[in-house]
Predict the 3D structure of the following.
Amino acid sequence: MTKIIIEIDNEKDKKLIKDFLDKLGIESQEAQDEKTPELLSNGKEVASLMQELAESTGLSEIKDPVAWQREIRQDRKLPFRD
């Protein structure tokens, strides 16, 4: 068995190829691409927004994470303990 994958972005061409395969008696399956054109077209914008978000978080300014955690952690008395 041989498998051939054809990518088509035109409905008219898709119908033509499917009709041709049907006339030849060749089984065909149709699947949608996981990536939508909207996601592909604004990829640079999404990357830019993600970079901006990464730069805006204050976590990169923390020099010593262990010391920072000790500073912000609020110890409290646990129930039923002295």
In short: The chain has a mean pLDDT of 79. The chain is about 50% helix and 0% strand.
